[in-house]
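Hi V.,

Quick status before I head out on leave. The structure for the redesign project is tokenized and pasted below; the design run finished overnight.
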């Protein structure tokens, strides 16, 4: 049994140190970019020695993945009710509200992967399944099919551009109008994808 100090077990303290490192990494990547993420600077900001960094992470790549997954988890949580109801407009509205409140999430999930190969890898591993869940039964297709991935890229590119511009404040302040436009763009793109043999489109459910 692990000994408790100040009401915390050794496992509790390890988890708390890991959370501090992720929080610092989140702030660094979300405000300065991946290039600013360094083990020494993160440890300094978290007020932890380097030995505690290696207690939780093998290297900064592992920390970067944890930061990405933390941002992704916040996005998934924010849009979960809308995804469950099949309301695409509400999905975009919830995502817009989240990124408006915390622009770091937009930078981590959408901006930095454009230039960083590691983050692009994480995007390839996670986003297609999430997109299929958000789109519901509007589109059925395998994200493992290269031709399908090309169509996903077109859709993602449009959404990335919209959300980056929204987060930077260049598209006004009407979140409902933004979500409506994003829904219209996505719906149009999905309609075009339906002409590809790898895709099967269905009518959107009654909302």
């Amino acid at each position: 049994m692990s000994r408790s100090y100040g009401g915390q077990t050794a496992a509790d303290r390890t988890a708390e140190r890991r959370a501090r490192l992720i929080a610092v990494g989140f702030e660094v990547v979300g405000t300065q970019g991946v290039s600013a993420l360094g083990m020494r600077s993160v440890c300094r900001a978290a007020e932890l020695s380097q030995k505690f960094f290696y207690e939780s992470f093998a290297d900064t790549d592992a920390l970067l993945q944890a930061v990405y997954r933390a941002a992704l988890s916040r996005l998934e949580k924010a849009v979960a009710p809308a995804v469950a109801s099949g309301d695409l407009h509400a999905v975009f509205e919830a995502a817009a509200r989240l990124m408006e409140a915390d622009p770091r999430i937009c930078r981590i999930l959408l901006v930095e992967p454009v230039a960083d190969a590691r983050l692009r890898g994480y995007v390839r591993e996670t986003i297609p399944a999430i997109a299929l869940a958000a789109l519901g039964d509007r589109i059925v297709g395998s994200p493992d099919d290269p031709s399908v991935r090309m169509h996903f890229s077109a859709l993602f590119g449009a959404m990335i551009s919209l959300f980056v511009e929204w987060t930077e404040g260049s598209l006004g302040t009407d979140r409902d109008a933004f979500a409506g436009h994003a829904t219209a763009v996505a719906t149009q793109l999905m309609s075009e994808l339906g002409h590809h043999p790898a895709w099967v489109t269905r009518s959107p459910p009654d909302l």
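Above is the designed sequence. The mean pLDDT is 85.

G. will cover questions while I'm gone.

Best,
W.
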